[in-house]
Amino acid sequence: MSQTHARKVETFTADEARVxxxxxxxxxxxxxxxxxxxxxxxxxxxxxxxxxxxxxxLSHLPELLEQFTSNCEANGMxxxxxxxxxxxxxxxAGILKERGKKKLVKSKxxxxxxxxxxxxxxxxxxxxxxxxxxxxxxxxxxxPPSHIVVPAIHLKKEEIGELFHEKIGTQAGASDPxxxxxxxxxxxxxxxxxxxxxxxxxxMAIADEGAxxxxxxxxxxxxxxxxxxxxxxxxxxxxxxxDADSAALLMRMLARNATGQPSTSYNSIFGAPRPGCQxxxxxxxxxxxxxxxxxxxxEIYKCIRCGACIxxxxxxxxxxxxxxxxxxPGPIGLxxxxxxxxxxxxxxxxxxxxxxxxxCPVKVPLRETIAYHREQxxxxxxxxxxxxxxxxxxxxxxxxxxxxxxxxAAARVGLRIMPQTLQRRIGGWSxxxxxxxxxxxxxxxxxxxNRGE
Length: 453
Ligand code: SF4
Hints:
- With 453 residues, this protein is of the alpha/beta class.
- 56% of the residues lie in helices and 10% in strands.
- The mean pLDDT is 93.
């Protein structure tokens, strides 16, 4: 049985310096994002328009998917449909094997994490090289990403220096980021030149053009897709937008919200295969249509994967991305995972503070969706044991002014005479926090005394 979220957070928080550094790095991204948002007077209007546009997509998905498919085919691409992860992986392996391809360079795609593509292709003897720098670092470390935009944010430059020394022969003890990046670039170039197929994700699929947009900061997707004669693009079916104007709106928001840049450095629109080459698109469902049918879950498919909700989340910032079981961490991961028992303990880690809602460029109701999943888990009797025991009692106490007042009086006495015992008994959350000094009287009592009835 896997460890709970709380247990994994304990492992991460054992290194206090790392926690502070990790949190500060993410807060810096959040600050840059805020500056960008404030620099555009029309930002809130853009959020509203983007949210409505994505709602339109969700409510017209079958027509838009058909339109996208027929336009892609008219443009010379081959479109494949995958019902689930297994089908997706078989389709990709089939395309590569039929053409005798042995080495695939791939740019970052959370979808391929979702369907566990790389181990599947390796079983078929196809080598896969991650070309996004963060993803490549993790591939060399044999570790999953800890963030959807900055996948190696949990690592220090010294750790990357050691890894590169061992794997690609950089100088021992070197940790200068510019030196390490140049070394990675050299080594990656050989991989690009020797690959015979490329894979990219899709940031936006433009229905009325039969084209798709790929945004990166490193140009690795473009480099990969323009060298070999085979390009496979994979996308979840929610990546659709109706037209190029809608894609442009999301492109204006994506980098601003993700990393605080006005734009990603490379934005490519793929509209047809290059002469003599092949371009395949695999469109994946993998449970999406079922979940979209649930109105209280559907809106998470407005998400454009900017990662801003993760950067702002206090639980993520101080707990690290590897404390989550679900392949996407943070608020959007919790919301997508839904009532998935694998992510049960994570749903309870959320404080429901709503900071994620405030930064989301497409207004995904993250807090409400996470609360909904807690409701579902409770109805399915999947509450963690202790919550099962005390939540009904807490409900009764909080539902009665008299009960609440008595419980608070008892807590004040308890905190005064045996704070350590209480702290130990409550466990988890209280282990690494000091309780406040209890007030001498309740607020209600103080109010009656000072302000009258
Ligand atoms: S839910 Fe919103 S803020 Fe979070 S990753 Fe998706 S688009 Fe970005």
